[in-house]
C-alpha cells in the first residue's frame, strides 16, 4: 500500500533520536537523500538491543544475543547493501532447519524447497517426524489471519506433534511470547514474508563475525562520510511542542530549537510514551536470555540447531564460541547465572557430543527484549506519523506489519524517514 503524505516542503535537516537499528535506518535513508542528519543516543554507543561488545569473562567479542534474519528480508538487504555489508550475513544455501529433541533423541531437518510451490510438504522426510501433511494447512490459516484480536491459540490446536515440533518453537522465536497467546496476524505476516515465499526467502542468516560488524559500525562510518557524527551519552529529556509541531529538544543542555527540521524519535516505547503526550505504546514486554560459551563447536555441527525438550532453545555455532538463546524467558530470567550456565552447558554438550567440562561462559539477560507480540499489545502500536507535522516515530514497536524484529525496526526507520521527506512508504504502513 503506498501512502503519500507530502509535507509542505522536504526538510534539509533532521534530528534522529535513538541510534538502534530503527534510528540508524532512518538516518541512512535521510542522509542518502541529502538531508543533514543529527543523530543522538543516550547510550555511550550505537546499536541499542542489537549490539556487540568485548566480554572480559570470555575474552571474546560477542553479541548481546543471537539474532536471526531471513534471506528474504527486504529492508535488511537494502540497508546492508547501502552501508556496504551485504556479504556479512551467513547461512545455508537452502532452507534447512536442524532440530534435535533431547528428550527422545530424535534429530530431523525441516527442509523447505527453494521454489514458492511448497512441494517439501509432500515429502514426509522433509517434515517434522510424526506430523501430518494436513496439519501444515495451519500455516496457511495463520498467513490469512486478519489484524484482529485472535491469537494463534484461537486458530490452531495447541498440542500434538505439529504444535510441539513446528509451531511452538518457530513462533516462540519469532514472537518472543507464549505462542498460544501470540497474535495470529503477526505470525501470519512473518510467514507471508518468509515460508510462503519459498525456501530461498527463508534461509536463516546470522551476522558474522558480529552484529556490530554487519549492522552498526559500517552504518556509522557510512554516516560519518556524509557529515553525521553521532552524539552519544545524549539523553533526550523533553520535547517542546507548539500546537502542530516540535519546536525544540532538550538533551539536558537547554532547549535546542529544531527550526524547520524533522524529528525522528527512535527510542524504546516506554521512553517515547514519556516524551510524547497522549501516545499509546506497548506496555508488556518479554525477556530473552542468551548464554555464550568460549568453546569452539565440532566442525560438522550445523550453524543453527533448534533444541527441544531442554531449557536451551536455539543453539548457534560461531567459529570460536557456542551461543544459546532462550526466548520468552520471563520464567527463567531471574535465575542464578552460574546455575543457568551449568544446566545449559549440560544440554549443549549433550547435543553436540562434547565431553569438555563447563568452559568460560557469559549469561546476557535482556528483560525487555521485545514487546509481547499479543493481539492486545499489537493494538497499542502507534503509526509513524504523529499529530505534530515534523515528528515521526520509529522502532520495532511502531506499526510496521511485523513482530519486533530487525526487519521491522529497519522498515520502521525507513518509513519514518520517507514520511519526513514526503515520500511514498516503501513497505506500507503495516496495517
Ligand atoms: C537478546 C535479543 C535477541 C533478539 N533476537 C532477534 C532475532 O533473532 N531476530 C530479529 O529480527 N530480532 C531480534 N531481536 C529484536 C531486535 O534486536 C530489535 O527488534 C531491534 O534491535 C530494535 O531496534 P530499535 O531501533 O527499534 O530499538 P532499540 O535497539 O531499543 O533502540 C533504541 C535506542 O534508543 C536509545 N534511547 C533510549 N532512550 C533514549 C533517550 N531518552 N534519548 C536518546 N536515546 C535514547 C537507546 O539507547 C537505543 O540505542 C532480539 C532482541 C534481543 C534483545
Count the beta strands. Answer: 19
Treating each run of at least 4 consecutive H or I residues as one helix, how many helices? Answer: 11
Q: Based on helices, strands and strand pairing, what is the structural class?
A: alpha+beta
Shape: globular
CATH superfamily of the domain at 13-50 and 211-283 and 379-420: FAD/NAD(P)-binding domain
Major sheet characteristics:
7 strands, mixed
Which percent range fits the helix content?
25-40%
Query: Runs with pLDDT <50, length 5+?
Result: 1-6
Classify the fold: give the CATH topology of the domain at 13-50 and 211-283 and 379-420: FAD/NAD(P)-binding domain
Q: How far is the N terminus from the C terminus? A: 9 Å
Distinct small-molecule ligands in the complex: flavin-adenine dinucleotide
Widest sheet: strand order?
Answer: 8-7-15-16-17-14-18
Radius of gyration: 22 Å
- Average per-residue pLDDT, rounded, comes to 96
User: In CATH terms, what is the architecture of the domain at 13-50 and 211-283 and 379-420?
Assistant: 3-Layer(bba) Sandwich
What is the CATH top level name of the domain at 13-50 and 211-283 and 379-420? Alpha Beta
Q: Spell the H/E element sequence.
A: EHEEEEHEEEHHHHEHEEEEHEEEEHEHEH
Amino acid at each position: 500500500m503506498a501512502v503519500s503524505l507530502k509535507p509542505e516542503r522536504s526538510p534539509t535537516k533532521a534530528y534522529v533520536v535513538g541510534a538502534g537499528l530503527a534510528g540508524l535506518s532512518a538516518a541512512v535513508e535521510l542522509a542518502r537523500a541529502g538531508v543533514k542528519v543529527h543523530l543522538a543516543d543516550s547510550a555511550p554507543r550505537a546499536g541499542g538491543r542489537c549490539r556487540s561488545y568485548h566480554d572480559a569473562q570470555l575474552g571474546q567479542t560477542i553479541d548481546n544475543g543471537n539474532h536471526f534474519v531471513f534471506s528474504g528480508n527486504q529492508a535488511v538487504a537494502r540497508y546492508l547493501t547501502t552501508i556496504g555489508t551485504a556479504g556479512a550475513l551467513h547461512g545455508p544455501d537452502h532452507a534447512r532447519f536442524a532440530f534435535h529433541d533431547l528428550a527422545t533423541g530424535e534429530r530431523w531437518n525441516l527442509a523447505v524447497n527453494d521454489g514458492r510451490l511448497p512441494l517439501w510438504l509432500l515429502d514426509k522426510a522433509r517434515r517434522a517426524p510424526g506430523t501430518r501433511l494436513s496439519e501444515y494447512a495451519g500455516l496457511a490459516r495463520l498467513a490469512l489471519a486478519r489484524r484482529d484480536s485472535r491469537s494463534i491459540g484461537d486458530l490452531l490446536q495447541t498440542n500434538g506433534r505439529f504444535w510441539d515440533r513446528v509451531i511452538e518453537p518457530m513462533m516462540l522465536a519469532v514472537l518472543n511470547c507464549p505462542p498460544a497467546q501470540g497474535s495470529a496476524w503477526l505470525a501470519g505476516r512473518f510467514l507471508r514474508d518468509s515460508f510462503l515465499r519459498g525456501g530461498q526467502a527463508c534461509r536463516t542468516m546470522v551476522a558474522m563475525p558480529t552484529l556490530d560488524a554487519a549492522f552498526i559500525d559500517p552504518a556509522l562510518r557510512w554516516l560519518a562520510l556524509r557529515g553525521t557524527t553521532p552524539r552519544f551519552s545524549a539523553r533526550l529529556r523533553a520535547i517542546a511542542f507548539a500546537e502542530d509541531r516540535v519546536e525544540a529538544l532538550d538533551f539536558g543542555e537547554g532547549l535546542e530549537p529544531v527550526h524547520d527540521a524533522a524529528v525522528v524519535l527512535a527510542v524504546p516505547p516506554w521512553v517515547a510514551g514519556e516524551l510524547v503526550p497522549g501516545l499509546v505504546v506497548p506496555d508488556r514486554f518479554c525477556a530473552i536470555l542468551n548464554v555464550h560459551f568460549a568453546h569452539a563447536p565440532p566442525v560438522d555441527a550445523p550453524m543453527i540447531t533448534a533444541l527441544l525438550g531442554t531449557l536451551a532453545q536455539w543453539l548457534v555455532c560461531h567459529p570460536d564460541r557456542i551461543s544459546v538463546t532462550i526466548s520468552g524467558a520471563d520464567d527463567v530470567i531471574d535465575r542464578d547465572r552460574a546455575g543457568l550456565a551449568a544446566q545449559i552447558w549440560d544440554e549443549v554438550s549433550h547435543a553436540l557430543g562434547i565431553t569438555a567440562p563447563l568452559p568460560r561462559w557469559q549469561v546476557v539477560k535482556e528483560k525487555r527484549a521485545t514487546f509481547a507480540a499479543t493481539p492486545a499489545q499489537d493494538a497499542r502500536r502507534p503509526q509513524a506519523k504523529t499529530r505534530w507535522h515534523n515528528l515521526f516515530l520509529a522502532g520495532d514497536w511502531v506499526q510496521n506489519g511485523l513482530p519486533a524484529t530487525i526487519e521491522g525496526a529497519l522498515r520502521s526507520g525507513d518509513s519514518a524517514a520517507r514520511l519526513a521527506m514526503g515520500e511514498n512508504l516503501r513497505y506500507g504502513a503495516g496495517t
